[in-house]
Amino acid sequence: MVLKSRSILPVWYAESRFLHSAAIREIVDSADSFVFGRMFKTPTNSTYRDGNHILLTFCHLEYPWDCNGVLSDPPTNLASIVAATYNYEEATQQAIPRCIIDCTLKESSSTKRIIEEFKAEGFSSTAPMEDKVMRLLVTEKWKQNQVQPSYTVRLARMADLDQLVECNASSFGYPVDGQQWIKAKLQRQLESRLFSIYVVDVEGEIAAFVVLYEWVERARDLAWVQVIGTKPNFRHQGLASALLSYAIGLLAVGTKVYLEAEDQVALALYEKIGFEHVGTIVSVECLLSK
């Protein structure tokens, strides 16, 4: 009898997405396996890069979590299921319904088949997007090697909201006016105990910020750097490096910190701080034509 071989789900992939047993058991009732998918719908925020889409990864996660995650074939008729999920009345308010397909764990032939299925349902696909997954393990030695920032670094508060919006928008080239989705997102993060926002305060002006995500109840030893940004006029002064090192330094020893990046300058910065490249995420974005 010949047993069919299987591909193991990389630990870095599971950890960087908080996919370990405690989190999984909160998501599903099944004790066997499931296809992981997350849906985001923010139809009023047409320019919101992280909204108006379904993010799909095709893998099975088995219990107990011991690196036994395996690749899974996507469900049949997946494209038609995704297309039907979007409610037309909700999705026509200048929103762009789309599906982000995580291709990291799939063979190229299988990925091509999935894209063709989406095209048949009226989706158009973009060029593959590649992000490197970086990880840093917080140790006592790492903490001892960090230099205290010469800038004022502090935890953000609700009174900083307007300045945070301005800093976020200018850091990533958004027009400051009309970006209500940024303000709404930052406000939710300031109100949530899952997020910590740290800022560099230069004489009352927020020059840089970083958002850390910690799912303490379900993943005490994991943290995620969601975003870090510096205003253009404060760049090349070491603010981002000092800020990120400071924020990570407040985490407990043993915490594994993850982030994703594609820009070579940013990658060099993260490597200098102590992050290591552990994997690569390749995604394809399929847009549903109206």
From TrEMBL:
Coiled coil: none
Organism name: Coemansia brasiliensis
Domain of life assignment: Eukaryota
One Pfam family here: Acetyltransf_7
Alphabetical list of InterPro entries matching this protein: Acyl_CoA_acyltransferase (IPR016181), GNAT_dom (IPR000182), Trichothecene_AcTrans (IPR052523)
GO molecular function terms noted in the UniProt entry: acyltransferase activity, transferring groups other than amino-acyl groups
Residue ranges of every copy of the N-acetyltransferase domain listed in the record: 151-290
Protein name, per record: N-acetyltransferase domain-containing protein
